[in-house]
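Give me the fold.
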Amino acid sequence: MKSPRSSFLLCAITMLTILAYRGLAIGAEKVHVGYSAISAVTVPLWAAQEKGLFKKYGLDTELIYLAGGSRVVLGMEANSIQVGLFNVGSAVEARLAGGNTLMTGSVYDVYYFQIFGKPAIQSPKDLKGKIIAASRAGAASEYGIRDALAHYGLKESDYKMVYVGGTDARVQALQQGLADASIISPPNGLIAQKLGFKEILNLMQMKLPFGYMGIGVNESWMRQNRDAMRNFFKGYLEGLALCRRDQEYAMRVVGRFSRIDDREILLESYRTSILHIPEKPYVKKEIIEAALKLSKRENVRTADPEKFYDNGMVKELEASGFIASLFGKK
């Protein structure tokens, strides 16, 4: 039988342990992080969450998937989401409308898309009069269709867009005959190809300047939580460094979130994404300017691109040596 003294000590130790854990939970700052696409360029975010890298820097993060950047921005404007990974165009549109969304980092600076269609469609010009599946209005997929086809002389009135949801749904739209073509992010392009559809355009190869994926924030929240935003970047960048070091792990994460187990497709995903994500994720002015050119809002003519982004956080992390500690000096 335990003595009263040993029982007391055991109880005290148990209570102290509970309080310590509660203290850690209370001390961690809750941050809701939205992301707009199930694609390989989101892997550093997923890896940072899975490996506890945000927790390492004192954040209690919850990841929320919302298909299309416009939906992530709506959450940020409502402050139900504080940080997001989504297309730059959605942030620009929100800010032109008087919103509070600010871009603070870059993830992928060209369109991460291919357009696949029925085998009878031989060239981009053959998309005239056709139905093309995108995710939703104001999403990167819509901008990609408009921007890419304009290079081939097609106006928006020359084709019809239908909004069907995420990348999986766009592949299904082809399979079900709901669209003649779909704009698709890797790795799903290879899936469409294996299903017998033809690549009509590779927007990655076109290298049109566009912020397919950037890191945005609710500006009011960031003003009051600069440490939390800095720590978000630390976790995200450490997640990117992990994916660079461990290709097999990164591919497993892509496979798990995209529900794909075909190694060829996963290798293509890694090759077209992780190797092109910047280690110093500065937002480029020309990317903001490209988004402004795509806007149809009246006040876009007088908009100052410098008001739509803030590279201060990335500058701090580079100056402190944090980025070099992860990737080495370049």
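The chain has two domains: 29-110+209-327, 114-206.
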